[in-house]
Amino acid sequence: MRVAATATNASPTNLISFHNVTKRYGTNIDVSRKYAMRDILTPSGMRRADPRPQEASALSDLSFDLAAGQTLLVLGFEGLGKTTLARLTCGLTRPTIGTVSVEGTTRLVSNQRLGPTPVMRLREYTRLLCMMLGADSRSLTDTVETILDDCHLAEWKDVRVHNAPEGAVKRVGFYASILIDADVYVFDRVMTLRGESSELRELFDTRVAEILATRTAVLLMKRVPVEVAPDRVLVLHRGQSIFQGDPDLAIAAYDRLAQRVINAEDTRKDEEMDRGVEFMASVRPDTDDEAK
To answer: Which of 36, 15, 14 has its CA nearest to residue 24?
Structure first.
């Protein structure tokens, strides 16, 4: 069952704007430090357009807008720029060239552990996590108890993290990141947690559906999630946008590309991916026509 995004008015307010955004990283830590110091002293508009020695581009000249209440689905294979886009949207890094504008609070939703120490009790870790995610301090205790209760971990709240049930920290982290309110949610390759009970999966899925229906969301995925009907689709390949436009056309074209790549032998995956990129470009709407 697909979840449709909330309808917007004729002139919606853009919550997210990327304008000619390029993000580069140095290939080693010393190079990164040197270039970072230079970039601090150089206005974005004056930075050189081409990569510098020992520097690689994670994103190149990317532009898009996302209005309040809309859902953007970003598709692409591993290592092609999705996580960099997520980090830029959430303000965890800055563009090398171009501008990123995001209104309101942002929330990065991933399945990564957020650095608990083994000696912390599960309740203490959950409280710290909620504070990091910007939970209302007036209801912090209630929020912690709700998370632990909903995740079936109330009886484990005074157990140290290293003795907690397997997956408890990841479960708490994921649920806290979707439960605590934000204006923009960025889902980096995950929309639920695999391996949980059907009851917990239903709890997670219900909250995610609510977010997609009432908030602005960016979904960064390798495959098309069947439960989502996005307002817009952006396809990334090697840091560049190769398709932006009609969701149905984009999803159909990308599904064909993904299936060919998955079924190809390892030695032919890059070849199939390049052929798929050419196919996506051939069905991409003309920019001027799309603007009309």
So the answer is: 36
Structure pTM?
A: 0.82
pLDDT in tens, 149-188: 999 999 999 999 989 998 899 999 999 999 999 999 999 9
Q: Which of 243, 210, 212, 239 is nearest to 228 (CA)?
A: 212
Half-sphere exposure of 249 (CA within 13 A, CB side): 11
Give one DSSP letter per residue of 113-161, joined into a string. Answer: -----TTSBHHHHHHHHHHHTT--GGGHHHHHHHHHHHTT-GGGTTSBG
Beta strand 228-229 with 3-4 is: parallel
**For residues 109-124, average pLDDT:** 83
Helix axis angle for 140-150 and 168-179, nearest 10°, is: 130
Sequence-distant (6+) residues with CB within 8 A of 204 are: 174, 175, 178, 192, 193, 196
CB proximity list for 133: less than 8 A, separation 6 or greater: 107, 176, 177, 180
| Two structure tokens written together for 64 | 């898009």
Token output for 279: 């196919």
Look at the block and give the residue holding tokens 């989502």.
228
Distances (CA, A) of 158 to 71, 83, 121, 125, 226: 39, 34, 5, 10, 39
Please say whether the beta carbons of 106 and 85 come within 8 A. no
| Strands ordered across the beta sheet of 232-237 | 106-109, 184-188, 216-221, 71-75, 232-237, 240-245
Strand partners, 67: 14
